Amino acid sequence: MQNGSRRYWSTLGIAFFLSFSIWAPLFCVPPMENILKQEFSISNTQASLLFTIPILMLVVTAIPSGLLADKIGAKKSICFGAVVVAIGTMGRGIANNYLTLLVFSLIYGLGFGWVFTNLPKLVSSATRTGRAGITAGIYFSGALFGDALALAITLPLIYHLTRTYQEVFFLWSIPAFLAAVLCWVMIKEQPAIQSSSSSVTLLGKVLKNKGLWLVGILLFFHNFYFYTWANWGPQLMMQKGANPDQASLTTSLLLWVAVPTVFLMPKLAFRVGLKKPFLWVPGIALAFFAWAAIYANLTISWLIMILIGVVNITRFITILALPTEMVPAENIGAASGLIFCLGYLGATVGPIISGHILDLTGSLKLSLYSLVALSLIAAGIALFVPETSPNDKSY
Q: What is the value of pTM for the model shown?
């Protein structure tokens, strides 16, 4: 029992650091978008691609990387992906034109998708039944910490000390290299669950699972909402009168408050014995907050950011745990791949559409109205997602 507990916590510790190391390089981009626009003479839409291209690569790699991990194990897949993340992020530091920066962002995204898709599988073997949400909350808090730290300190601290975007990217490449080494040395790969079925057959089983499709569609709307906020939140704050440093710090509240929430809400869901309320109630709340943000002044915008952060992560961490509870262990990689492939299309599309709207209108008001509508749609979809709680007998 003691060895099992030690393995559980060491696996979660590595997963936490992996989450931090792959997400922080993504969220160092929004604070620097104005700098990058001036450096390369690009539009808001082009700047948003630097943020969304890595997420698009997550969409592209999600299913194949999940299938591969089901065959060869999560450890090998994740270590490979972490090295690619570091190479891509470091490559952004040597980019001297927009196209090169975009290409290295794409490379970083390939590794990003390879790691993130397989983290649920990496920790699933060490997780007790019914506690997938709690486990997901622990390791994903690393991503939240990385996101919040990158948003908060990239511009006012790192860039102001280095005075170059290149050195910012170099700095954020270091954790991924360290995470790859730690994963390889400290994680003991569990024997792969052998299946007589081919990858195509396993994928076919996953594709026939209607519940997984609903979860993927729900994640699409969820990510459309969140990544629009994360990418254009600093711009919205500046339109309300904040300076660039204040805008980045205010937007980072989305993620700072998510860190304690990601531990508390899964425990609450476990005690309540139901997960669906933690999916549809946030949809209604987030619709209201997007509407309120249109009319809020800068003074109360920080409060809106806090509330969005709490409600947003409550829904996300519930979604993140579902693949491990909806399919057999040998299919977790493929199931996560399907959900992430669908879900992170929303993370790609949302910021680009909002950037285009900003180019055309000079305002984010229309984008916020669209987030209101999409949040209400997401709340409706959540009602049809299968309940997976062990306390519920309907599945």
A: 0.75
